[in-house]
Amino acid sequence: MVAGTSHGSPSKLDQLNPGSGPAERLRRAHGLLVAAYGQQWWWPAQTPFEVILGAYLTQNTAWRAVERSLENLRDAGALSLSGLRSISIEQLQELIRPSGFATRKARALKAFVSMVDGEFSGSLEALAAVPTSDLRARLLKLPGVGPETADAMLLYALGHAVPMADEYLRRIVERHRLLNPAPSRNRRGYEALVELTAQAFSSDPAQDRAKLFNEFHALTVAVGKAHCGRTARCAGCPLAPDLELAGAASDHPATGP
C-alpha cells in the first residue's frame, strides 16, 4: 500500500484501500468521479416521456442521431404520448430515421404507447406507481426493451431507484478486476454489473439512491468517453489510483466496440 503523506490532505491513493471489496471500491470510485467531473444533471431531456423516447432511440446509435430524431418529433408535435398516439407508424418511422433501425424502433414505441393506454389509462404517473420489480418485469416484456433500456426508463423517467449499467461500466469493472469472472456482454453480465452497483450504494440512505444511481451512471459515461474506450487511456484518469492499487495497471486489454 502506498504510504500517505505526513502533512496536509491525503492523496487519492490514501483514500483507497487495496484490501477493500469490489462494492466498496466502486462506491469510492464514485467519489473520485464526482471530484473530477462534478454533477452531470442527467438525463438530457425536458419531460419523462422524452426520456423514454430517448431510451428507445439511443439503442445502437450515437446520441447526436437521437437528438435529430427528437427534434423531428418535436417539430411534428409528436414529442408526447398524445402526439405519438396520433401519428401513423409510417410517419413515426420517417421522423426517427436518423436514429437508425426505424422500422423496429417505431413498432416498439407504438407498443409502449399501446401498453400505457391499455393498462394504465394513458398515464405515465399510473405506470410509475407500479412497484419496481413488477414494473421492470412488465417493461421487459415489451418489444425492443432489454434490461438496460428498462432500467433507463425506470431510473430517469419513472423515478425508481434502480442501478443501471452499460459498456463503459463493464469495461471499468473488467479492467479494475472488480468481478471474477469478468462480466460478459450478455444479460447475465449486465445483471452482475447492476447487482455490484446496488451493493456499492447499499449503505446509503434509501431516499438518496435514485439520485446516486442517476449520477453514478452519468459519471461512468463521462469517464468512459474520456478514458475507458476500446483502448484504455489511463493517463489522467480519475480512477487510475484504484487501478494501481488493484494491481491491474499493466493488464487491461482493449475490449468491446
Report on the structure:
The protein is mainly α and 257 residues long. It has two domains: 13-41 and 164-245, Endonuclease Iii, domain 2; 48-157, Hypothetical protein, domain 2 (Endonuclease III, domain 1), CATH 1.10.340. Helices cover 56% and strands 0% of the residues. Helix 1 crosses helix 12, helix 5 crosses helix 6 and helix 10 packs across helix 12 (209-227). It is globular. The model is unreliable at 1-16 and 248-257 (pLDDT under 50).
Write down the overall mean pLDDT: 89
Number of domains: 2
What is the helix fraction of residues, given as a range?
55-70%
Gross CATH architecture of the largest domain: Orthogonal Bundle
- β-sheet strand percentage: under 5%
Which fold name is given in CATH as the topology of the largest domain? Endonuclease Iii, domain 2
Order of helices and strands: HHHHHHHHHHHHH
Spatial gap, N to C terminus: 34 Å
Oligomerization: single chain
CATH level 1 name of the largest domain: Mainly Alpha
Uncertain regions spanning at least 5 consecutive residues: 1-16, 248-257
